[in-house]
Amino acid sequence: MSDIETEGVKRELAEKALGIVCPMANEKSTVVDFVNAVLEQCRGFRSVRFFAVLDKSCTDGTIDLLKEQAGSIAELEVIWAPGNKCVVDAYVRGYREALKADCELILEIDAGFSHQPVEIPQFFEKLSQGYDCVFGSRFCKGGDFESGPISRYLLSRFGSIVSNILLGTNLQDMTSGFELFTKDALQMVLDKGIQSKGHFFQTEIKTYCRNLRIAEVPIHYKVPSKNVNLGVIADSFVNLFRLFKKRLSGKL
Q1: Rounded distance, CA 213 to CA 185, Å?
Q2: Distance separating alpha carbons of residues 89 and 133, to the nearest angstrom
Q3: Which helix (H) or strand (E) holds 137?
């Protein structure tokens, strides 16, 4: 496996089935190189499945390139999900496909090289130390938030601080979407039910995992969009206080 030196880690991972969940939209210019780069970092497992989830928001021909690529890459599975109503539906569909395929580890990564495939091996190394979930962090030592406006940086930074205070979590980055789960941890999250409809769902997931064995690893995140969606911010506040009330009532 690329960049992983420890023989014990290699032996352990060689017994596991890995699922990679990656929702995609209009990624035509990078999608082929991205899939190849991710799979290059995921060698050494008993099996690997790359679930590329697309829906009607994809209009630039990305899906055609993926289907062509899947003809020569057995690990790649193209999931067409026209019923998706929001970004969260795409992720959840990918999670369910990975669990249905009996993947024992599930890696979530965003397309378009906003997450760096070369950083994947550190997730496997950390999980092999006995963790249930490993979360990528832009704010821990060694992490970075690149190419984005200060407004997006402050929103993610402030959101992480407030979420930790209100939800009883203890992570430096509560909004990152680059993460690795054991199948039991991810199944627990789905059983609890993800209600957020915007990107706050990443915070919701981390909140549900707060009592598991969790760790953070540094990542270098390249912001794909400079826009701050007011609807996403509103969804974040609504669901933050929903979870806070659940915590106060002992139902979280």
Answers
A1: 10
A2: 21
A3: strand 133-137
pLDDT value of residue 231:
83
Q: Which helix (H) or strand (E) holds 190?
A: helix 183-192
Inform me whether the pLDDT recorded for 3 exceeds 60. no
pLDDT tens profile 62-88: 999 999 999 999 999 999 999 999 999
Prediction pTM value:
0.93
Homologous superfamily of the 1-129 domain (CATH): Spore Coat Polysaccharide Biosynthesis Protein SpsA; Chain A (3.90.550.10)
Per-residue pLDDT averaged across 129-143, rounded? 96
Burial (CB < 10 A; 0-12, 13-18, 19+), residue 182, is buried
**Structural domain boundaries in the chain:** 1-129, 142-174+185-252
Number of C-beta neighbours around residue 67 at 10 A: 13
